[in-house]
Write a structure and sequence with these properties.
The complex is a heterodimer of chains A (113) and B (110). With 113 residues, chain A is an all-beta fold. In chain A, 0% of the residues lie in helices and 53% in strands. In chain A, the strands form two sheets. In chain A, strands 2, 4, 5, 6, 9, 10 and 11 form a seven-stranded mixed sheet that branches. In chain A, strand 4 and strand 5 form a beta hairpin. Chain A is globular and about 35 Å long. Chain B has 110 residues and is mostly beta strands. Chain B is 0% helix and 55% strand. Chain B contains no helices and eleven strands. In chain B, the strands form two sheets. In chain B, strands 2, 4, 5, 9, 10 and 11 form a six-stranded mixed sheet that branches. In chain B, strands 1-3-8-7-6 form a five-stranded antiparallel sheet, with no helix packed on it. In chain B, strand 7 and strand 8 form a beta hairpin. Classes of the chains: A mainly beta (113), B mainly beta (110). At the A-B interface, strand 5 and strand 10 of A face strand 5, strand 9 and strand 10 of B.
Chain lengths: 113, 110
């Protein structure tokens, strides 16, 4: 069974730009969660989607948004990028919200200059 | 105060040693406890999960949860160089939200 895939793997953007990251969950998994990982803060929960609906949201500004498609693939968007948005963005899939097992993708490394 | 506290290390041990990794938490609503391993440039990989207080063993790994003390541990027996990674504890609350520790970096020296 193929794992969680994320594209692109690496991205360099400048301040003020926007970016869209993509995540394809494991086949059959309908829940997708997004996390931001930085050395100082560790993994921080951004949001979770299930059946195309946002089920949970972390404490991030409105510049961070996401969506899920009918095939469970998910995208997250960050608008008006700031230097502090540089991080590894991880996507995790599970069978259902808050599922017993979350499986993570390799992440997208975003650098904002 | 963070919801989940984890000593970042780094921790360096000789091959074959027993490793103890620990996390504390403050929220009694956490009911589901996990340990992840993350290699450099990879996403976290789920190692173990448990709902209840007590021990859960899987091969060389033992997860221990003490809900009364709000303390969880991961023990690695007969540590191998391939165990060198960052270990993350994670917890889920009744609202199905996950909280992670910042990770402990482990190096097992051959």
């Amino acid at each position: 069974k193929a794992g969680v895939t994320q594209t692109p793997r690496y991205l360099i953007k400048t301040r003020g730009q926007q970016v869209t990251l993509s995540c394809s969950p494991i086949s059959g998994h309908r829940s997708v969660s997004w996390y931001q990982q930085t050395p100082g803060q560790g993994l921080q929960f951004l949001f979770e989607y299930f059946s195309e609906t946002q089920r949970n949201k972390g404490n991030f500004p409105g510049r961070f948004s996401g969506r899920q498609f009918s095939n469970s693939r998910s995208e997250m968007n960050v608008s008006t990028l700031e230097l502090g948005d540089s991080a590894l963005y991880l996507c995790a899939s599970s069978l259902r919200p808050g599922g017993d097992e979350q499986y993570f993708g390799p992440g997208t490394r975003l650098t904002v200059t | 105060q963070k919801e989940v506290e984890q000593d970042p290390g780094p921790l360096s041990v000789p091959e074959g040693a027993i490793v103890s990794l620990n996390c504390t938490y403050s929220n009694s609503a956490f009911q589901y406890f996990m340990w992840y391993r993350q290699y450099s440039r990879k996403g976290p990989e789920l190692l173990m999960y448990t709902y209840s207080s007590g021990n859960k063993e899987d091969g060389r790994f033992t997860a221990q949860v003490d809900k009364s003390s709000k303390y969880i541990s991961l023990f690695i027996r007969d540590s191998q160089p391939s165990d060198s990674a960052t270990y993350l504890c994670a917890m889920r609350n009744t609202g199905n939200q996950f909280y992670f520790g910042t990770g402990t970096s482990l190096t097992v020296i051959p």
